[in-house]
Write a structure and sequence with these properties.
Bound molecules: nicotinamide-adenine-dinucleotide, zinc ion
Structural class: alpha/beta
GO cellular component, one term: cytoplasm
InterPro entries: ADH-like_C, ADH-like_N, ADH_Zn_CS, ER, GroES-like_sf, NAD(P)-bd_dom_sf
Keywords: Metal-binding, NAD, Oxidoreductase, Zinc
Distance between the termini: 27 Å
EC number: 1.1.1.1
Cofactor: Zn(2+)
Largest sheet: 7 strands, mixed
Length: 360
């Protein structure tokens, strides 16, 4: 069924990065028309898109993975399905509110896909990295991996949940921390981190927020962090974090959401014996070292956690849409044309919470 409820324009606006110079420019582009969609593809009218630090890594090309050239970034898109490719096997309908997340598509038949580990699929397509993402008014995405946005949820509230929210929610699950346990969150004032503070609270965890500056301190404390440590002011971060826990043994888990290597440096030193450090932030070239003797004797765990699967995305959205819920993204809405300035502010650590682009 190739159908469309509204006139699709031939041209629209989006933000594109050329590999050659890494500069992001807002340009007009040709919109894929409904008749040209392949089976399994959908055209989404993107109303809002969150800006993730991953988009900045993609623009700077500082990861050991190659991005598409002339790349339209963005993987926290929230909008409406306006057309679906013929012969698509889906229960999505034109008009449905959907989210575009980092994992744009996966083969659905390899061992990883069969186990719900779709982000490990060797054929995975990544929104705003290997395929164009949500920094455009009309985006082609894939019916199998679009997330349905719960009824009544505002699209701008939903957008940051599609990467930041699902990622920290899954990372918290990976940490195996239980209600009443302490969790440290380096990067707590950023996009992922401030949502991590909130999902952690929802799970009954006690949060030690680590970041810098008065604005992020205020944000983290207002969101329920019990302890705050400024990584630029505190001289002995390991002792300060351990001291913040009642018995001084350190947090049961750490969810490292910092985009700089320094956030990782001490995590294995302050984690409680038997505790788990969950690596989430992706600072280019960072290496985590752990002295084998103490790693063994203290039974430390270090696990990587990469976005989440379709069910994680669904759960993260549902939890962020609960009446009187504890999870609410703190964001500032800005126009698409601000993206170059947003990248500069993000690089210098000025942004507290998330920034959401308004595409229309
Ligand atoms: P952000 O810029 O909004 O937040 C990062 C925060 O880290 C900032 O508030 C900064 O002040 C803080 N920080 C920097 N150094 C620190 C330190 N030494 N200790 C404590 N805090 C420190 O970025 P974001 O959008 O939240 O993304 C964070 C990272 O997570 C990026 O590297 C991004 O690519 C990565 N990411 C990973 C996944 C995944 O699946 N694993 C998903 C999304 C994003
Ligand atoms: Zn992201
Ligand atoms: Zn697969």
């Amino acid at each position: 069924m190739s159908n469309s409820s509204e006139q699709i324009p031939k041209r629209a606006r989006g933000a594109f990065v050329q590999q050659a110079d890494s500069n992001v420019k807002v340009e007009e582009y040709d919109v894929v028309q409904p008749k040209d969609l392949k089976p399994g593809e959908a055209l989404v009218k993107v109303m809002y898109s969150g800006v993730c630090h991953t988009d900045l890594h993609a623009a700077k090309q500082d990861w050991p993975l190659e991005a598409k050239d002339h790349l339209c970034g963005g993987h926290e898109g929230a909008g409406y399905v306006v057309a679906i490719g013929e012969h698509s096997n889906t229960n999505l309908k034109v008009g449905d509110a959907v989210g575009i997340k980092w994992l744009a598509d996966a083969c659905m038949h390899c061992e990883f896909c069969r186990q719900g580990l779709e982000s490990l699929c060797p054929e995975a397509k990544l929104s705003g990295f290997t395929v164009d993402g949500s920094f455009q008014q009309y985006a082609v995405s894939f019916v199998n991996h679009l997330s349905k946005i719960p009824d009544g949820m505002k699209l701008d509230d939903a957008a940051p949940i599609l990467c930041a929210g699902v990622t920290v929610y899954k990372a918290l699950k990976q940490s195996n921390a239980k209600a009443g346990n302490w969790v440290a969150v380096p990067g707590a004032g950023g996009g992922l981190g401030h949502l991590c503070v909130q999902y952690a609270n929802l799970m009954g965890l006690r949060v030690i927020a680590i970041d810098t500056g008065a604005e992020k301190k205020k944000l983290c404390e207002s969101l329920g962090a019990e302890a705050w440590i400024d990584f630029k002011e505190e001289k002995d971060i390991v002792s300060a974090i351990k001291k913040a826990t009642d018995d001084g043994f350190g947090p049961h888990a750490a969810i490292v959401t910092s985009a700089s290597p320094s956030g990782y440096e001490q995590a294995l030193d302050y984690i409680r014996p038997g505790g788990t450090v969950v690596a989430v932030g992706l600072p280019a070239g960072a290496v985590v070292k752990s002295e084998v003797f103490w790693h063994v004797v203290y039974e430390r765990k270090l696990v990587g956690s990469y976005v989440g699967n379709r069910q994680d995305a669904h759960e993260a959205l549902v939890l962020a849409n609960m009446k009187n819920g504890k999870v609410k993204c703190h964001y500032v809405t800005r126009p698409l044309d601000d993206l170059p300035a947003i990248y500069e502010e993000m690089a210098s650590g000025k942004l507290a919470g998330r920034t959401v682009l308004k595409l229309f």
